[in-house]
Specification:
2 copies of one chain form a homodimer. By secondary structure, the first copy, chain A, is α/β, with parallel strands linked by helices. Chain A has a single domain, classed as TIM Barrel. Chain A contains 11 helices and 11 strands. In chain A, the strands form 2 sheets. Chain A has an 8-stranded parallel sheet. In chain A, strands 1-10-11 form a 3-stranded antiparallel sheet. The first copy, chain A, starts with a strand and ends with a strand.
């Protein structure tokens, strides 16, 4: 094996950048590591108008003005009219659907997905992808499995709608991918590498608390198999979700893992360890280009075994593996 | 239904009292609520000699000198000789077996349970009960299920050994109870009332992090059925395990829930709500008397619908339901 290999235009197809000071702290970290990212709209209040979306995009570009970086914007799903969708189309890469109350800032989400068939129908006609946080309100380890029926309904009822099952975590979701041509998925770094054991098997690590919750070993195994075999419907989406340390090491700790600084490094190690370097480019960029029909900014990164220490904090945020040494570095090739 | 009912000599058949300042903070709380308790030996270092056990017992009695309270002492399982066991017999209610490293202060536990057949054999002959923390080192949600084979081996190989499956949490453990006459079990307040949803279904609540981890709804249902039908092999054991708040609201949070102050109150509400008041006396005292052959101190408590606010802290320890209002009170009848 050569000492290093190159990836082009890495994309993070599921990213939370938050607002204001937090945005300014974390956006440059993603901009350094990625050519672009799909930006989640669950702000307070959520991004539900083009005006808000355009100004949020400006804030993001301002926050990472030292880097060339493409924020692919999303609207927060609501009962949009056909005219609104038509007007939004050129500004967005998709619309993100949250069932009501399933994760951070999703209180304004959809209560009954099937009540919005007219919106899905318009999105299908306009070619606007639907990005879905696929969890029910059931028992925390079963929520994604229980949502499979909704994915099935969406996939069958709107066969030309591009549907992304966001941050999938279970064997059942991987299986569902192959049942419907119009279903695709993102997978996070943490669900690819960790299980509930890492969060709660020894001492409790609140920094690994996320929604969907980390799952069982056989679920992780299914995700790894999909990624390592180069499944073309699977994209990287970090779901990197910063919270200040005060909201993590406390009594009612918020859900989210900040993985932007370590994603490329840890993924490089993962693909190298599994002798699957040739599958990294597809997962980190090419599958997303093909699924969404996008042409990302040209950026090249060299992946090399070159240990570095992850900063313990990024401003107030503790990153995954903060303070520890990672073996692989990802450096821009000028 | 009458407004109040009486229980006599409530026993907590699984209790952690710790040492020094923590012992002095929490022991009186148990002494006020219970006639006696089985005291766990996982101190640092663990209680493995009679001298240590006798002095620990004195410390406990000193700490709750305002109340009549019987600490039923246990030794930490190790390779005891027959002579040691014979000498220990009159001082102990049983010996507590921890697989190595499964919970707080269990680093000195047993690596291979079957290597200690000679000790179990001596305990059987001497009539010393074996109390077991039944978890493997597998995936955190499977550890108790995986330990069932070891319970089976113990129950079959030593058919006259009294074996207590401590703090059972799963449907499989409840089922196992009925397969072998010499198997018994304790059930905690938190595993009886809560599931993993309560700890990690919304925001993360580190105060509900415990070992064994909270389980699935169908597991809780099996525990509730056993308790509400008055299963005579099932005893209350709180596994109340105080940690200072600094070890709970932090990055590597310790496992344990402090339930001593609220156990009688919350159990009273549970039995009343399920129209099973008549089953409370067995669960809280009579089954233990019969299984262990003990005659506890006579103490009577009146259970009454009389709301009270749980203190937010006991010294440095946050109790279960701290700061909230409970509907039922348990007051000593003089």
């Amino acid at each position: 094996m050569s000492a290093e290999w190159i990836i082009t235009s890495p994309l993070d197809m599921h990213l939370h950048l938050r607002q204001d000071a937090m945005l300014r702290a974390v956006a440059p970290v993603s901009a350094q590591q990625f050519a672009g990212a799909v930006i989640m709209p669950n702000l307070v209040p959520p991004v539900t108008t083009i005006e808000r979306l355009v100004s949020y995009r400006e804030e993001i570009l301002d926050a990472c003005s030292d880097e060339i970086f493409e924020p692919y914007m999303t609207l927060f799903f609501r009962d949009y009219s056909g005219a609104e969708l038509a007007a939004a189309r050129e500004h967005i890469i998709g619309i993100k659907l949250y069932p009501e109350g399933v994760t951070t800032n999703s209180a304004g989400g959809a209560r009954d997905v099937k009540a919005f068939a007219h919106v899905f129908s318009s999105m299908q006609e306009l070619g606007i992808p639907l990005l879905v946080h696929g969890e029910t309100h059931g028992f925390v380890m079963d929520r994604e499995r229980e949502f499979m029926a909704t994915y099935q309904w969406l996939a069958e009822t709107f066969p030309r709608l591009i549907i992304i099952m966001e941050h999938i975590t279970t064997l059942e979701a991987v299986t569902m991918l192959d049942r419907y041509e119009n279903l695709h998925a993102t997978i996070t770094l943490h669900h690819l590498l960790l299980t509930l054991d890492d969060m709660a098997g020894g001492l409790l690590n609140p920094h690994l608390f996320c929604k969907p919750l980390l799952k069982r070993p056989e679920d992780r195994e299914a995700l790894q198999q999909a990624v390592l075999t180069g499944h073309s419907k699977v994209m990287f989406g970090s779901d990197s979700a910063p919270h200040p340390v005060s909201a993590k090491e406390c009594c009612g700790c918020a859900a989210g893992v900040f993985t932007s600084p370590v994603s490329l490094s840890m993924l490089a190690e993962f693909f190298d360890r599994h002798h699957a370097r040739d599958k990294f480019q597809g997962f980190i960029s090419d599958h997303a280009r093909s699924i969404y029909g996008i042409s990302p900014i040209a950026k090249r990164y060299a992946l090399k075994k070159d240990p570095w220490v992850v900063p313990a904090r990024y401003e107030s945020v503790v990153p995954l593996m903060g303070g520890t040494t990672l073996n692989w570095s990802a450096r821009p090739v000028i």
